[in-house]
Amino acid sequence: MKKREKLDIIRKHYPYALTTIDYINKVIDYVEEKLDLEPSQIILADSICSDDVNSIQYPARALEFLGPFKMGGLDGFPFTGLSGMAAFASHVPDDGAVFIYYGPHIGISKEGVVGKINRIGQTEKSLCCGAATGALNKLADNTIKLGNVTELDYQMNIIEQILFKQKDKILNSELPLIEATEVIYQAIDDRIQELIAATKYNCKYIILVGAILINSDSDIGSFSAAKRFEIINLKTGLRENIITVLNPE
Questions:
Q1: Is pLDDT above 80 for 179?
Q2: Cα 73 to chain center, whole Å?
Q3: Strand ranges for 204-246 from DSSP E
Q4: CB-side exposure of 192: number of CA atoms within 13 Å?
Q5: Which of 64, 79, 207, 213 has the smallest CB count inside 10 Å?
Q6: For residue 129, is the peptide bond before it cis, meaning its omega torsion is within 30 degrees of 0?
Q7: What are all long-range contacts of 144-153, with beta carbons under 8 Å and residues at least 24 apart?
Q8: Number of domains in the chain
Q9: Contact 32, 54 (CB under 8 A)
Q10: Are 163 and 144 in contact (CB under 8 A)?
Q11: Cα dihedral angle (138, 142, 148, 153), rounded to 10 degrees?
């Protein structure tokens, strides 16, 4: 299947999606040309789901950066918290930058089925994101209790609580899993902003890319629909929104 055919499937739901390969190429081009930095001067942290498909479909050029430092747990929420952000910030080169890529993920199969993908070696499709789908099912069944967060299933319980706060909006939407993914993205984005504000960085820039990470079948690959691309100049405090850099051409 040609790239444009793959994109046609994904862009029915995410019109501004790029392949993860194209997205990382654009980020690297920008930091080299506009920030005058090499990837080896930048430490990457990602806050994406711990699902193995995200490691399998990780773009190879991302490994030109230092890292990645893993901040995310189920569906990408930054469960390593303030201690994780502080640890990561202490690893950055003095004359470089930190690059944080974050967001939830969702599967879209080559047939256009939302929430399922075909994984390597499997004949049947499986859930993606399984945590979001599980929480959504409990939301629909009215079995989530406000404030119920346990040690045994802490991360899943947090995802459930995030969705519970937006129950009506999610369940009344045309595609509840897509809406649930948007709600989780916003919770992740809010938390990343909190963590940044509470952390000291000894470098030049913070590079933020918030996105919906879209997985597809093993022979299709993955995509990113960027929702934030921002450069924070740590010397001046200026925040520059450059989201158009990651828009499709």
A1: yes
A2: 11
A3: 205-215, 222-233, 239-241
A4: 28
A5: 64
A6: yes
A7: none
A8: 1
A9: no
A10: yes
A11: -10
Q: In angstroms, rounded to a whole number, what is the distance separating the alpha carbons of residues 221 and 215?
A: 6
Per the listing, tokens 């989780």 go with 184
- On whether the CB atoms of residues 237 and 31 are closer than 8 A, the answer is no
Q: Confidence class of residue 249 from pLDDT cuts 50, 70 and 90?
A: confident
Quick: pLDDT tens for 26-69: 999 999 999 999 999 999 999 999 999 999 999 899 999 999 99
- Give residue 154's region: left, alpha or beta (phi > 0; psi -120 to 50): alpha
Domain extent at residue 87: 3-245
Q: Is residue 17 packed enough to be buried (19+ CB in 10 Å), middle (13-18) or exposed (0-12)?
A: buried
Q: Buried b vs exposed e over 66-83: b needs ≥16 C-beta within 10 Å?
A: bbbbbbbbbbbbbbbeee
What is the domain-level CATH number for residue 81?
Answer: 3.40.1050
3-state secondary structure of 59: coil
Q: Which residue has the tokens 């040609």?
A: 2
Residue 32, both tokens = 């080299």
pTM over 0.85: yes
Contact 230, 197 (CB under 8 A): no
Report the DSSP beta bridge partners of residue 42: 97
User: What are the helix (H) ranges across 141-249?
Assistant: 154-164, 167-171, 176-197
